[in-house]
Amino acid sequence: MYVEFIRKADTASFIRCHLNAFAYFGGITQTILYDNTKQVVLERDQTGAPVWNPQFLDFSLRLGFALRLCRPYRPRTKGKVESGVGYVEKNFWLGAQFVDEADLNRQARSWLDHIANQRVHGTTRERPMDRLHQEQASLAPTPPIESIAVFLRESRKASWDSFVSYAGNFYGVPWTYAGQTVEVQADSVTVQIFSGGVRIATHPRSAQRGARFVTDQQYDGMPAGGAATRRTTHLAFQTEALPEVQVEQRSLAEYAALVAVPDAVSLDEVLADVFRGESA
């Protein structure tokens, strides 16, 4: 058995879980049975034939394993898929306590290695780990990471302030990629960002949400005017200090001499003039 917990069950995450499972097993199975999940089959046509998810179909063809689907409304095959889920729920998930996703998956891996795959299975009457050793000779080898890197990356659009949003956090890229579509490849430790197959930034992966990481030299060489100004008007830049300006200083007496000060008059006299209309 292999178990992995993820926050978002999209096709890219589903594929990444497959690759992690193959690594855990030490090879690729010839066939995999699915419970008609949308990550594998989008729908069935008028004849009942499956309409495959093209991204996942490409993945299965490239790695060389066949896709099988449970027949709709047939509990016999559906139960084979769901029985493992029930075992995990009752024996691991119930009462589990964890700090974050990485901590949860570390606990799950320990549970697999020391409990789930060491027990005597109710159907085979063998320990799953012993059975795996017997069947590993029938597994196909996993391809080199370079040939499957495309399946490990997810497309994201860099914002105008040169950050890429991924899993609730923001990771910086050089400003020249602002507004462009880039690819994110992440594991439990790092987040790598690529453009056209070239890695343009690497960050530590945050276990929290809302964190913001700036890459080295993210805004180096950014012009102060032109089109870039419109895109990044909210950004501030530190410049060289302006030259000190020498200002002539004068005493207050000089300014007082320039102002004609009338003789003092009483308030009563001023009010009397106002009411007579003689002065405003």
Question: What does this 3D model show about the protein?
Answer:
The structure is a single chain. The protein is of the alpha+beta class and 280 residues long. Helix content is 33%, strand content 18%. The chain has nine helices and eleven strands. It has helices at 11-25, 54-63, 75-93, 101-116, 128-135, 145-148, 227-231, 252-257, 267-276; strands at 31-34, 41-44, 50-52, 66-69, 153-157, 163-166, 169-172, 181-186, 190-195, 198-204, 212-213. It has a four-stranded antiparallel sheet, with no helix packed on it. Strands 6-7-11 form a three-stranded mixed sheet, with no helix packed on it. It is elongated, with a radius of gyration of 35 Å. The model is unreliable at 226-234 (pLDDT under 50).
* Biggest sheet architecture: 4 strands, antiparallel
Strand content: 15-25%
Number of strands: 11
Uncertain spans: 226-234
The whole-angstrom Rg is: 35 Å
**What percent of the residues sit in helical stretches (DSSP H or I)?**
25-40%
Distance between the termini: 98 Å
Characterize the overall form. elongated
Helices and strands: which structural class?
Answer: alpha+beta
Number of helices: 9
Please provide the ordered H/E string of secondary-structure elements: HEEEHEHHHHEEEEEEEHHH
- Going across the biggest sheet, name each strand in turn: 5-8-9-10
Average per-residue pLDDT, rounded, comes to 84
